[in-house]
Write a structure and sequence with these properties.
The chain has about 220 residues and is α+β, with helices and mostly antiparallel strands. Helices cover about 30% and strands about 15% of the residues. It has 7 helices and 5 strands, in the order H-H-H-H-H-E-E-H-E-H-E-E. The chain has a 5-stranded antiparallel beta sheet with strand order 4-3-2-1-5.
């Protein structure tokens, strides 16, 4: 879906400051959040793409102020509520009780785990269909707005690039996240010119991005 998570290529967010001594987990709770996130797909009966879509759906304010591992916690709550492992409002009620507040118990959750099983482990698949595009071919990223999960960034939509490599076929996140089938497709490395994406005053470089076949059309 199109939301605050699709920030690539946008401006006005300030300078990125890189701390060479930054720890993986700055606070102990961040390590726990990572563990919860890693287990959430199994507990909720979902998958990695559904996990990413849960992050997509966070409120823009929460997405910006909660930080990286805060988003993981929000994602875990969304997946567990969606699958009926937790009742809506259960996490907020628990936090309020820990603060000593009187809180009405939330209703019991209704089990709602998706009835969906992948055909194999991981995301790579073998498909019989020949690739539609070849190395050196000019292609255009399709221009569309998505109300579901997608891995097609807004900043390349409608722009033309060149296929530089054919990558292993993978399940399509757009359907996999919604348990609507794996829809495995060829994946291409596509090179774009920075000036075409962001104008002649942008820094000059070539950007290579991995794109699924259904994201592309002949230029």
């Amino acid at each position: 879906m199109d939301g605050i998570h699709d920030m690539g290529g946008t401006q006005g967010w300030g300078t990125v400051i890189i701390d060479p001594d930054e720890r993986v987990f700055a606070e102990p709770w961040e390590g726990k959040a990572f563990a919860y996130g890693a287990l959430s797909a199994r507990l909720s009966g979902t998958n990695l793409d559904a996990m990413r879509h849960a992050i997509d759906r966070q409120h823009p304010y929460d997405y910006l102020v909660d930080g990286y591992y805060g988003r993981w916690l929000g994602c875990v709550e969304t997946l567990l509520v969606d699958s009926g492992v937790l009742a809506p409002g259960a996490v907020e009620a628990r936090a309020r009780r820990l603060r000593g507040e009187d809180v009405e118990e939330p209703a019991e959750p209704t089990p709602n785990k998706p009835d969906y099983q992948p055909t194999a482990a991981g995301s790579l698949r073998e498909i019989p269909d020949p690739p539609r595009f070849e190395v050196g071919q000019a292609v255009r990223a399709r221009s569309w707005a998505s109300d579901g999960h997608t891995r097609l960034p807004r900043y390349v939509r409608g722009h033309t690039g060149t296929v530089t490599a054919l990558l292993p076929a993978q399940v399509l996140p757009d359907t996999h996240a919604h348990f609507a089938g794996e829809n495995a497709q060829h994946v291409y490395a596509v090179e774009f010119d920075s000036a075409d994406l962001w104008g002649p005053d942008s820094e000059t470089f070539a950007l290579t991005i991995s794109l699924y076949e259904s994201y592309l059309e002949p230029a």
